[in-house]
Amino acid sequence: MQESGHIFLARMGKTKLRPGGIDATNWLLDKANIKPDSKILEVACNMGMTMIQIAKTYGCHVIGIDLDETALDKARKKIRKNHLEDKLSVRNGNAFDLPFADASFDIVINEAMLTMLVGKDKDRALTEYARVLKPGGILLTHDVLLQEDSPKAQQELLSGLSRAINAHVEPLTLEGWKEKIESHAFRTEQNYGKMTLLDPIGMLHDEGLDGTLKIMTNAIKKENRQMFSEMFDFFNEHATQLGYVANYSIKL
Ligand SMILES: C[S@@+](CC[C@H](N)C(=O)[O-])C[C@H]1O[C@@H](n2cnc3c(N)ncnc32)[C@H](O)[C@@H]1O
């Protein structure tokens, strides 16, 4: 069976698996007023890139959870390599059933995961984020933005996107994301822009020259070429219809 897009891109060497890359992440982190004693949970930490950035920048502790044991093993190695074992830990866990008490975190960060949830599953995850956040806590999310108003065009775009990344996904419009998050008793401020995930300039910015060369070297191998070019072409052909959105939300 063909692997889903984010697993494929991670295998190519991509380390930022989110639509707006590091600039969108930094917008969220800059707003969150993170302190060395902030209690932070990262849901869908994957290989730990964002939590490592947070610990290095703000000196605080972060717990990461993800469903993907292979990605968590990479995270454990990167945490050790960066000598951050005293600040960072990861464990297998599901956003729908967070293994933490009510009101136990100041900040929950969740990048490029809600887009992957369809139907009521976004609400299941958001209910959990609201539960584990303290009153006044901050939810930082970063997702794919649907910039298309016509329902017919939206449907075609979503089918094409799900095919290109080999996963059933459901990005929302700017208003759609705001309404969805605010329906869980948050007040949301948004930033949005062009998707950088597979854009050549965005890739250079997010992965550096060496990282981009490594990704391209893997991508042109015979066994990877077709999937990479399908994803690359799809995102570039639909660059005006698909962007990123960063949602900074305060729990009311
Ligand atoms: C596109 S990747 C994003 C990874 C990382 N946050 C980043 O921005 O680079 C999506 C991640 O969500 C994780 N994931 C999907 N559903 C999940 C769930 N219900 N609970 C926890 N993690 C989940 C996947 O295993 C994967 O690591």
- According to CATH, what is the class? Alpha Beta
With strands numbered from the N-terminus, the spatial order across the biggest sheet is 3-2-1-4-5-7-6
Give the overall shape.
Answer: globular
Kindly identify the CATH topology.
Rossmann fold
Number of self-contained structural domains: 1
Give the helices and strands as they follow along the chain: HHEHEHEEHEHHEHHE
In the CATH hierarchy, what is the architecture at level 2? 3-Layer(aba) Sandwich
Low-confidence stretches: none
Q: CATH H level: which superfamily?
A: Vaccinia Virus protein VP39
With helices defined by DSSP (H or I, 4 residues minimum), what is the helix count?
9
Q: Helix/strand/pairing class, anyone?
A: alpha/beta
**DSSP, total strands:** 7
User: Which small molecules are bound?
Assistant: S-adenosylmethionine
Q: Report the portion of residues in β strands.
A: 15-25%
- N-C termini distance: 44 Å
Radius of gyration: 17 Å
Mean pLDDT across all residues, rounded? 96
Helix content: 40-55%
Largest sheet: 7 strands, mixed
Care to describe what's here?
The protein has 252 residues and is α/β, with parallel strands linked by helices. It has one domain: 3-Layer(aba) Sandwich (Rossmann fold). The chain contains nine helices and seven strands; from the N terminus they run ααβαβαββαβααβααβ. A seven-stranded mixed beta sheet has the order 3-2-1-4-5-7-6, sandwiched between helices. The longest helix has 20 residues, at 200-219. The radius of gyration is 17 Å and the shape is globular. The termini are far apart. The model has no long low-confidence stretch (mean pLDDT 96). The structure holds S-adenosylmethionine. The site of S-adenosylmethionine has 20 residues, from β2. S-adenosylmethionine binds next to β2.
